[in-house]
Design a protein that fits this description.
Elements (H helix, E strand, L loop, with lengths): L3 E5 L2 H8 L24 E4 L4 E3 L4 E5 L2 E5 L3 E7 L1 H7 L2 E2 L4 E4 L12 E5 L6 E3 L4 E9 L22
Length: 160
């Protein structure tokens, strides 16, 4: 059952997010997230540039990817288990929640991943390394009034 499609963001959006870095993969060469095996739930995302996460610090990684999905589904972003087990790396916000309407945000729904390194030494992610994974889950709604609002921005754009 297909409920979503991954796409690249525009070259302009990618360049803006990469803040002038020239050592990154061109956006059109970033592999779209894919499952490693037939039984894998997670879609692996590729690090588009060598990234150093400082000791006890964090780094934001623009993936160059957006996701169009059916309503009623959410894409959860998590670190790959190897990073967690070997290096205790975590997402800064614990789990990234990509809502179906994020695709229409002003930043084109560009999926950005903030990783936190709790160790006392820096951690390097290589260009092309698989570093996080996305898992699609269906969600239900509580009995409530209809929410007619529309998303405008990216992180934290739905209010406090």
């Amino acid at each position: 059952m297909s409920i979503a499609v991954f796409e690249h963001v525009s070259e302009e959006q990618y360049r803006e997010a990469m803040q002038g870095r020239t050592d990154c993969l061109p956006v059109e060469e970033i592999p779209l997230p894919a499952r490693a095996t037939r039984g894998s739930a997670g879609y692996d995302f590729i690090c588009p540039a060598e990234t150093v996460i400082p000791a006890e610090g964090k780094a934001v990684i623009p993936t160059g990817i957006r996701c169009r999905m059916e309503e009623g589904w959410v894409l959860l972003i998590l670190p790959r288990s190897g990073l967690g087990f070997r290096h205790q790396v975590r997402l800064s916000n614990t789990a990234g929640v990509i809502d179906s309407d994020y695709y229409y945000a002003e930043n084109e729904g560009h999926i950005m991943v903030s990783l936190r390194n709790p160790l006392k030494e820096e951690l390097r992610l290589g260009k092309g390394d698989r570093f996080c994974q996305g898992i699609f889950l269906p969600y239900g709604l509580a009995e409530e009034e209809d929410r007619p609002g529309e998303r405008k921005g990216g992180f934290g754009s739905t209010g406090k």
